[in-house]
Amino acid sequence: MRIISRKALRDFWICHPDSEQALRAWFAEVKHVAWRSPDDVKRKFRSASILKAGRCVFNVCGNKYRLIVKVNYVTKTLYIRFVGSHAEYDRIDADRV
């Protein structure tokens, strides 16, 4: 998958150093996959939540942080839409971010 943009992850782990290793590991895994459907996402990340409009939510650092991405399965592109704490996630609309 082509991931747009790693900078969002880097900016987050600079402010939250405990997330760096987990976000780097997630990035390293995802850049080598070619998801064709939400089922492919669930096979790789069982705890991921599949939302409407191609969005997926990943738990990071034992669910301390959340990562929302929008996946374009046709172009094999993944857009990072949100990285934040669980509390910040609760305050947003994950289907629209």
Can you give keywords for this protein?
97 residues, alpha+beta, five-stranded mixed beta sheet, globular
Summarize the structure.
By secondary structure, the chain is of the alpha+beta class. It has helices at 6-15, 20-30, 38-44, 86-90, and strands spanning 2-4, 49-50, 55-60, 65-72, 77-85. The longest helix is centred in the N-terminal third of the chain and has 11 residues, at 20-30.
Descriptive report:
There is one protein chain. The protein is of the alpha+beta class and 97 residues long. The protein has one domain (2-90): YaeB-like fold, CATH 3.30.2310. The protein is built from four helices and five strands; from the N terminus they run E-H-H-H-E-E-E-E-H. It has helices at 6-15, 20-30, 38-44, 86-90, and strands spanning 2-4, 49-50, 55-60, 65-72, 77-85. The chain has a five-stranded mixed beta sheet. Strand 3 (55-60) and strand 4 form a beta hairpin. Helix 1 (6-15) runs antiparallel to helix 2. The chain is globular. The chain starts with a strand and ends in a 7-residue tail after the last helix.
- Mean pLDDT equals 94
The amount of helix comes to 25-40%
Give the class from helix and strand content and strand pairing: alpha+beta
- The order of strands across the largest sheet is 1-5-4-3-2
- At CATH level 3, the topology is YaeB-like fold
Give the oligomer, counting copies of the same chain as homo and different chains as hetero.
Answer: single chain
